[in-house]
Write a structure and sequence with these properties.
single chain; globular; mainly alpha; about 290 residues
Length: about 290
């Protein structure tokens, strides 16, 4: 009986601790979410605009928005969930912009969206259960290989080439791997998608960029669903950042459409280099 009572007491203490942590997070969230005159409320939408602009051209917007959310003092789970909201809003408009331009085709699209969304939801579920330390060390080297390849191959992505995989195989494999990666970790996802479309499906760079936005949208929405279901989204703040992200995404995608392959390639290289630098710095300083 004594042992049973002790176990019940321990469970009660654990439950109380969980409630206190949850209430503290909710209280913090309300202070941020209902305080439109705070400095953070204005800085964060500016970060959303910059993230939307960069992300719509070459991916990597999360390098701007997520660190800014964390620097504002948000707990990691709220920062991740809110970041997914603002990113999903902007990506919706950039993907639609590329689709209107004809840079998105229906070939294998439904398959890619389905597998990407399912895997991203699973990745978001794993965020609080697994460590990303290994990815922090490995991903920079994979991105470095992409950077060097694009740098020494000035003609890559200029025209459509022969596909090395069928659209179904690519979308299933890419959706599972990159969808999970985006839900769980994220940096460099757009770069991997874009190079996958170019090298494995033979897409020219503009079309690869358009399809990347669609897959990014699928993983963002799926991850957002998980975070929202666990109360880890600040809706007012996320909507404000999202509105700014939409403006940035529209401007960036219009610029990419107008400037074409050379412009996209240049921004892509800058974003990949910045992602490598950030991940290497994170692996060194923790």
């Amino acid at each position: 009986m004594v042992g049973g009572e002790e176990r019940r007491t321990e469970r009660a203490r654990a439950a109380a601790g969980t409630v206190l942590r949850r209430d503290a997070a909710i209280g913090f969230a309300r202070r941020i979410d209902l305080a439109p005159d705070t400095t953070a409320f204005w800085i964060l939408p500016a970060a959303g605009f910059a993230a939307g602009f960069i992300d719509s051209i070459a991916g990597g917007g999360g390098m701007i928005s997520l660190p800014t959310l964390l620097a504002s003092g948000l707990p990691p789970h709220l920062a991740l969930g809110t970041n997914k909201l603002q990113s999903a809003l902007g990506t919706t408009f950039s993907a639609a912009n590329y689709a209107r331009r004809g840079w998105v085709t229906k070939e294998g699209l439904a398959t890619g969206i389905t597998w990407t969304a399912a895997a991203a939801f699973a990745g978001a579920w794993c965020v609080s259960r697994l460590s990303a330390d290994v990815l922090v060390r490995v991903i920079p080297w994979l991105l470095a290989a992409i950077f060097v390849y694009v740098l020494v191959s000035p003609k890559v992505g200029e025209a459509r080439t022969r596909a090395r995989l069928s659209p179904t195989a690519f979308n299933v494999l890419g959706g599972c791997a990159l969808g999970f990666y985006d839900g769980f970790f994220g940096p460099g996802t757009g770069s991997f998608w874009t190079m996958g479309f170019v090298l494995l499906l033979g897409y020219p760079l503009p079309q690869a960029t358009g399809h990347t936005k669609v897959m990014n949208l699928a993983s963002n929405v799926a991850s957002l669903a998980w975070f929202a279901g666990h109360g880890s989204v600040l809706w007012t703040l996320g909507a404000a950042m999202g509105a700014a992200n939409i403006v940035g995404a529209l401007l960036g995608s219009h610029l990419a459409i107008r400037k074409g392959v050379g412009f996209i390639r240049g921004v892509f290289l800058v974003v990949v280099a910045a992602t490598i630098a950030r991940l290497l710095w994170r692996s060194l300083v923790g």
